[in-house]
Design brief:
48% helix; three-stranded antiparallel β-sheet; mainly alpha; single chain; 8% strand; 183 residues; ion transport
């Protein structure tokens, strides 16, 4: 019996040490050296060095003076990261989208962009299409008493053009740039 138990326990201990401690420490060390910004959460800091959020996670911006992120099924909490799992035929989803569309709709601007009404798969997507941000410019300009042209220029500066996929805007980065304009 001892001839089977001892090697099995030794192997279990060795594998636990390798895969549970040494491998994670090695990967963490390599990540810290090769990609320190990403390994530490892609944190976004203000001019004073205070952490304002992560470039990888959407935030809930309140008030007319800010560009708003797309809706989040998990209230922008990373622990609850997920989609709502409501099917397109679900009346609760239709009610929420209709309510949000009614609140965001501006007659002179046309239909509300879909990205401002629907959640992303993770519920935490920090990006919006430029059209969804542009739809918000009149509201933000009026609240901040800033010319719409200045906000349009800010939007163009903040628009990212990835190698694959359509252009996107990181809402946190855009709002940080907006903050430098003043209130």
């Amino acid at each position: 019996m001892n001839t089977y138990v001892r090697p099995a326990l030794s192997l279990a201990l060795l594998m636990t040490l390798l895969t549970g401690a040494l491998y994670p420490l090695a990967v963490t060390g390599i990540a810290q050296v090769a990609f320190p910004e990403q390994a530490n959460g892609s944190l976004v800091r203000d001019a004073q060095g205070q952490v304002r959020g992560s470039a990888l996670i959407a935030q809930d911006f309140q008030g007319d003076g800010w560009f708003h992120s797309r809706p989040s099924a998990g209230a922008y909490a990373t622990v609850a990261s997920s989609a709502s799992n409501l099917s397109p035929s679900n009346p609760a989803l239709a009610e929420r989208v209709a309510s949000d569309a009614g609140a965001l709709y501006r007659t002179q601007q046309g239909p509300v962009p879909q990205a401002l009404l629907t959640t992303s798969g993770s519920g935490l997507d920090p990006h919006l299409p430029p059209q969804a941000v542009a739809y918000q410019i009149p509201r933000v300009a009026a609240a901040r008493k800033v010319p719409e042209e200045r906000l349009q220029a800010l939007l163009e500066e903040a628009t990212l053009h990835p190698l694959i996929g359509p252009p996107v805007v990181n809402v946190l980065a855009l709002n940080q740039a907006l903050e430098t304009l003043g209130h």
